[in-house]
Design goal:
By secondary structure, the protein is mainly α. It has helices spanning 3-35, 46-56, 85-88, 93-110, 114-145, 149-194, 201-244; strands spanning 62-66, 73-75, 80-84. 36% of the residues are buried.
Length: 245
């Protein structure tokens, strides 16, 4: 397969994947907001759920309020589950599903779950490379605008190479994220059922919808990062091939 074909295929694939990304984003927001108004049958708040899981699973974890910008997450460095104000003191289906999911990550951390370690490592490398390469990309772009001929082309190639590295690492990080997120949701759902926090079929269906909608956003993010990577890589290889010719 030629790089020209890869370039065109990635370009054609970008639009439908972008549309799916928008749909997934709207879907997860709509589903979570809907089930924020549906109370769980166990009458337990997300705060109480995290404390109950920590006690029963013997997890030495903290629980803190998260800002809206940071969002709900588990911090493996501080061993802390952080929940937004909207989730922390709510007993809604969405709040319970989100809290259980983050506790799933805490369980992964306690068990030294290999995909979680790999994801954390890849994300650190990706974040470091982005900080390192962004100034290089800016310098290369500015230099290519103020130079001509062969020099401009060299600077432009360096810029494209920087994008290839950034989006390549982003694709790897997105891929490494998938098994940890799916596994955290599986663990979270299992804990909700084992502890009889969700007891009826309607609650189980609702939790599944919340977790599935959230998982779909990670799948689409991975697809988008792969398309970006292939787009820049193929463009770079086309220019590199022309330069050798």
């Amino acid at each position: 397969m030629s790089w020209e074909l890869v370039y065109w295929i990635s370009g054609i694939a970008f639009l439908p994947i972008l549309i799916f990304a928008v749909i997934a984003s709207i879907r997860v927001t709509t589903v979570i907001e809907h089930y924020h108004h549906v109370r769980g049958s166990g009458n337990l708040t997300a705060r109480e759920l995290v404390q109950k899981i920590a006690g029963e699973k013997q997890l030495n974890i903290g629980l803190e309020m998260a800002s809206e910008q940071a969002g709900d997450h588990y911090d493996p460095h501080d061993k802390t589950v952080r929940l937004t104000a909207k989730v922390m003191n709510s007993s809604s289906i969405s709040a319970l599903a989100i809290a259980a999911h983050e506790c799933g990550h805490a369980l992964q951390d306690a068990e030294n779950y290999a995909p979680l370690r790999m994801r954390n490592l890849v994300i650190r490398v990706s974040n470091f490379s982005s900080r390192l390469l962004t100034p290089l990309i800016i310098i290369s772009l500015v230099a290519s605008l103020f130079t001509f001929g062969m020099a401009a082309e060299i600077y432009f190639k360096w810029m494209l190479l920087g994008f290839c590295v950034i989006y390549g690492l982003s694709a790897v990080a997105s891929f490494a994220t998938l098994p940890t997120e799916f596994d955290a949701s599986r663990r979270g759902k299992a804990m909700l059922e084992q502890m009889q926090i969700i007891e009826n079929h309607e609650d189980q269906v609702a939790v599944n919808q919340v977790l599935r909608a959230a998982a779909n956003t990670y799948v689409v993010a991975f697809a988008l990062s792969v398309v970006y990577f292939l787009r820049y890589l193929s463009y770079f290889m086309i220019l590199f091939g022309r330069g050798r010719d």
